[in-house]
Write a structure and sequence with these properties.
Length: 278
């Protein structure tokens, strides 16, 4: 079934840089996504696996699963869902043309897991092609300020957001702008672009939660999905695929900036600027 955006919703997206949709998925579809996300979480980790699991160091100093990337090609349910007409149709109404799946990830945000520094997404995509993207955040479980839900600065997609050497947003800009919490219930969507300033705190609740992110580019720019993951696998491979004698500094900056994945490099959980719940 198609989903038609109203003129008011399209105008809100243009103004704020993000749009929340709370009625795209049915209850049964939401349960399917929850089941699929657990299946991906439980997939084996081995050198033969084409999907890409990443670890972090949590608040207790333990290495735990942080996210899985590049799973759509290997999961029929997610492949049909993420490349299906309904999600791509919603995005086409905002972009003005058909969209292709560019990349996908599930962030697990287990209890005690870390947050993401204030940032914009575009620096992590430019190595493939300098294009604009739209991203869907689908709440697999409830996401709120107690378990590391997302916050954004309204209208920041139209601002010149400064970035530091670490590709994250500097402290003075963080403190001089209002951050809007975006609470989501299971099955609800947030859509935003590559230039929206956003962040999320650590999961300080006692409950694990998952969130699915899928990023899309305009179909006229090509199908770039496999090119992206080929580059990522070489420069910032899944945690278990890294070789002790390899230097991943370039990939670390490009793909890991502002994320809990950096904690594996430092050996301890990181607390980022702007995690005001710390």
């Amino acid at each position: 079934m198609s989903y038609q955006l109203s003129q008011e919703q399209r105008e809100s997206f243009e103004k704020d840089g993000f749009l929340v949709l709370r009625d795209v998925l049915s209850e049964s579809e939401t349960k399917d996504v929850q089941q699929w996300a657990q299946e991906v979480h439980d997939w084996p980790i081995s050198p033969e696996s084409p999907w890409m699991p990443y670890e972090e160091v949590n608040a207790s100093g333990k290495r735990v699963l942080c996210r899985t990337e590049n799973y759509a090609n290997y999961h029929d349910g997610f492949n049909g869902f993420l490349r299906g007409k309904r999600l791509r149709g919603v995005l086409a109404q905002l972009s003005g043309e058909p969209m292709n799946l560019f990349k996908e990830k599930i962030n697990y945000k287990l209890a005690g897991s870390g947050g993401f520094a204030p940032h914009i997404d575009s620096p992590a995509y430019r190595q493939i092609k300098d294009i604009k993207h739209l991203t869907i955040l689908l709440a697999v479980d409830s996401a709120n300020m107690s378990n590391g839900g997302l916050e954004a600065v309204r209208g920041s997609h139209n601002m010149k957001v400064p970035l530091g050497d670490d590709l994250c947003i500097p402290s003075d800009w963080i403190q001089s702008h209002e951050w809007t919490p975006i609470d989501l219930e299971p099955g609800q969507l947030l859509i935003f672009g590559s230039y929206l300033a956003h962040r999320s705190g650590a999961n300080r609740s006692d409950t694990d939660r998952k969130a699915l992110y899928a990023t899309y580019n305009r179909a006229s720019e090509g199908d770039l999905h496999d090119d992206y993951y080929e580059h990522r696998a070489k420069n910032w491979p899944a945690t278990h695929m890294r070789k002790p004698d390899e230097d991943y500094a370039e990939g670390q900056l490009l793909y890991g900036y502002g994320s809990p994945m950096l904690s594996v490099v430092t050996g301890k959980q990181l607390v980022f600027e702007g995690d005001v719940r710390g």
